[in-house]
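ok so for the tutorial part 2 we go from a plain amino acid sequence to predicted structure tokens. step 1 is just haveing the sequence, like this:
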Amino acid sequence: MDDLVSDFVCEAADSLGGLQAGLARLAVDRSDRAAMAEMLRRLHGLKGVCGFVGFARAEALAHAGETLLAAISQAAAPVSAAAVAPLAAMVGRMADLFDRAAEAQGEPAGDDGDLVALIEETAVGLSGRSSRPIEAFPPAALPSSLSAAAIVSDRRVCAPWSGLDTLARALGDRLGKRIELMVGGDDVRIVQAATPPLRTALIAMVRNACDHGIETPSERRAAGKPARALLRLSVHQAQDGATIELSDDGRGVDPALIREGCVASGRLDREGAASLSDAEAQSLIFASGVTTAEAVTALSGRGLGLELVRREVESLGGTVALNSVPGQGARFVIRLPAAVLATPAARSRVAA
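step 2 — the prediction. this is what the tokens look like for a chain of 352 residues:
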């Protein structure tokens, strides 16, 4: 199996374990909003990585699961057990997919349309009134073979930024945009334990840039820009840690849209939003539920992606910040402590 996919299968075990823990909490208290929020973050991160490695079935299941989790979390009163049951079925189906992927060298073929439809129907009704019985999709336990310890090998661990150039091109094709991502900088090595959260953060950042930041070719030409957009990922190491910068030449982050997003999410009232400086408004792009998207898509729109970036980076003891000029682009800067570095700086160039 390709190193990247093999790493993904290992990481998926942790994500699914977290989802199962959340389901166990909801079984006790279906009003546990902290459990719902944590499950949403885990599922959003898993969905992004599924798209990254080309697991279309798992990506579709995760997107449907996000929709149902969002509906459950927004319900005025605790929902029925029947409304939560499709989530357990989704976790079981994904666990089976990843378990078989470990031997199939990729995502196995199949059709999950029945389960996706059930999840989406449940999200609409939130009462279990589906045309098909939920019992047709019994919860499945996480296979023991998916535990991280069971899939450890002596393979080389991929860098967190490996394959991001391919992801950017694929997302560009999907969105009707022409996007190129260039990677450069120092030969920075990240410890194995820090690689999964950092890769999840970087994937979310690239997805955000491609979906929100980069304009269509026609919009770019009208703005006097080349039709092909450029993302630059630079990695640099110093004695006190490492810096990772992702910059683009897209539309940038409009503080006015962030203020509107804060009001729409209930984070601020209009008076509070209006009192924010542009820098303060832009910093809130990392807050939960804040989005500039007009609609939810398979790629974005829930206000979870950049919150996920912040949480993953902070879990490593790092920080993330945004610097943006509307109309000119955006620059995200991740600063990581020396504890996540595996080797001293080699000062050689990074290969994409």
